[in-house]
Amino acid sequence: NQLTVFNSQSTIQVGGRWNRSKGRVERPFLGIISGLVVNGARILELASASPDRVVITIRGDVQPVPPGSLLDRTSPLQRMQQ
Fold first, then answer.
1. Where do the structural domains in the chain lie, given as residue ranges?
2. CA distance 64 to 37
3. What percentage of the chain's residues is helix, strand, coil (to nearest 5)?
4. Which terminus of the chain is less hemmed in, N or C, by CB atoms within 10 Å?
5. What is the C-alpha separation between 48 and 53, in angstroms, rounded?
6. ∠ CA 56-39-81 to the nearest 5 degrees?
7. For each of the chain's 82 residues, which pLDDT tens digit applies?
8. pTM of the model
9. Nearest-CA neighbor of 67 among 35, 26, 40, 37?
10. With the C-alpha atoms ordered 9, 10, 13, 14, is the resulting torsion angle positive or negative?
């Protein structure tokens, strides 16, 4: 069962693959990641609200954006479609 396998994970890598031996991110993602949901949990929002429960390690050229800040810059029509 896929959920059983995924629920046992302690680490989720998003946006690229961290190569420990080379000390760098391989195949990095270029763009914006938002609304990351894993098994019904909104991971990025959970990490922001509960830093003691969820630890996010940022590697590479990443700029975290506060929740809601992207929505404030979009038109009402675009907000409705998100």
1. 2-81
2. 17
3. 30, 10, 60
4. N
5. 10
6. 90
7. 455 555 566 677 788 888 889 988 888 888 877 778 877 878 777 777 776 766 777 777 777 776 666 655 555 555 555 4
8. 0.48
9. 35
10. positive
